[in-house]
Design goal:
Mean pLDDT of chain A: 96
Oligomer: homodimer
Strand order of the largest sheet of chain A: 2-6-4-5
Order of helices and strands of chain A: HHEEEEEHEEHHHEHHEEH
Structural class of chain A: alpha+beta
Largest interface: A-B, 53 and 53 residues
Helix content of chain A: 40-55%
DNA sequence: CGTCAGATTGAGCAGCTTCAACGTATGTGG
DNA sequence: CCACATACGTTGAAGCTGCTCAATCTGACG
């Protein structure tokens, strides 16, 4: 089962922000309790859960979401390989939202008891894990800005730009060309629009020559133009390697 | 200058989630470098800054915000007494947004070098500081859900409910009655609407008997009804005292 | 009394929703 | 291999939410 499984993307994500020593890598690997698989469209964790472990996404796509009163869904984050999907449940204890597998997912489980040992013995590594949750927070703020002040078209464009950069940073595809096997409905729920309108937004971007999307393969033919339309600046992703 | 200044609200905010020992309190107090004041409408930190210290808000209201291309502003968080406004700049290093004083503000500064010592010597306290940033994150997610899937009226109601609970938790007013000296424009920028529409939303809530607001004093005459309209459930604020 | 920030009002318009239908690809059981 | 089911994508038309522009009102303050 563990044959193919690697922490490559996770280490890349960390290394993109600061050096991680061999001892720290070993400590991280030793903190893993087990590996797991989730089928597409199943929940990895549910709102109200009190997980005793945190889940690192090794392979696949997942989304944090909440359901509102009328049954509509809002996605607050899309996670890719190398992302911890619920590291925050370690200090927070109770989940205030659910996480759904958008595709089949491979994961690694880190028991909170092991994470607690890390916080006692590896201060720098603790700050790096803290940092990982702060990156989620930075992305949340960017989404809030988009939802409040940008058009649906700009928001869609922005999400494509963001995913391109994040995927490239963990070695999956390029900024302007990557695999994104999710539905228009999923994207609509992330962007806060109806699936009908999301479809029209995509058509509009296609017509402008800013987006191609076939069989889950996204291409952004004119990066400069789509960055401008989306008002995208990747600084909020903090892809700067420095002592932390 | 330090005469009136106390960390009461901050300790209340922490104690609402877990016990903080005397040694931990002392360590926190000892980590303070200096105190400061900011006039209303001035920036406490600016996007792009690389602060060498983190700022704890002791008194007043502040807002994190970004400006978009057409000059519009989106507020992504409203902070009250006892909130760290840029604790995330400790691991993140660079600010990806600015923070504005909505009123006159009193603050305490924690140099990052001191925070680093805390992470080396006080693992539990470190997790509590981490927790403080994760609460911001939880609020961000709730705002995303509102911006994406609730009406402007429900969002306004939700924000009032949230601020009531948060203010009561640090000893400022009651859930249904508190002081909020900000403008309708500020709220509009937090809720992602125009100030004209925000004014109409407020009038509608007043007409329904769900909101009174004079001279900055907010009253929610029918908590149950406004919670229902806002779909407000305070679990995302994690006001549960337990070992962390 | 003039000034200014903030609040309020009206009218017309744009973005997005809703409802409903239809298209298209893939898979499945008989 | 066909009949059917299912999921996803696409299209049209009507309507609502919230925006823009512009004017007016109000209270605080010098």
């Amino acid at each position: 089962m563990t044959g193919d499984i690697s922490l490559d993307e996770f280490f890349k994500r960390l290394e993109a922000r600061d050096d991680i020593g061999a001892a720290e890598r070993d400590a991280l690997r030793a903190s893993i309790d087990s590996f797991g698989h989730f089928d597409s469209q199943t929940d990895l964790v549910k709102e109200g859960d009190r997980p005793k472990r945190s889940t690192l996404l090794l392979k696949g796509f997942a989304a944090r979401y909440k359901i509102v009163g009328n049954g509509e869904r809002q996605i607050s984050a899309i996670h890719i390989s190398g992302d911890f999907i619920d590291l925050h449940s370690f200090p927070l204890k109770e989940m205030d939202h659910s996480v759904l597998a958008l595709t089949d997912c491979e994961v690694a489980f880190f028991p909170h008891s092991e994470l607690e040992k890390l916080t006692a013995n590896y201060p720098h590594l603790t700050r790096m894990l803290w940092l990982m949750t702060l990156l989620d927070s930075a992305i949340h703020r960017e989404w809030i800005t988009g939802l409040g002040r940008l058009s649906a078209e700009a928001r869609h464009a922005h999400l494509m730009c963001e995913l391109g950069v994040r995927l490239e940073a963990v070695g999956h595809g390029k900024k302007d060309n990557f695999y994104l096997p999710v539905t228009q409905s999923d994207l609509a729920d992330a962007l806060g629009v109806s699936s009908v309108h999301e479809n029209r937004v995509i058509q509009s971007l296609r017509a402008k020559g800013l987006l191609a999307w076939h069989n889950g393969q996204v291409t952004l033919p004119d990066l400069k133009a789509i960055y401008a339309l989306a008002e995208f600046d990747d600084r909020y992703l903090h892809l700067v390697k420095e002592p932390r």
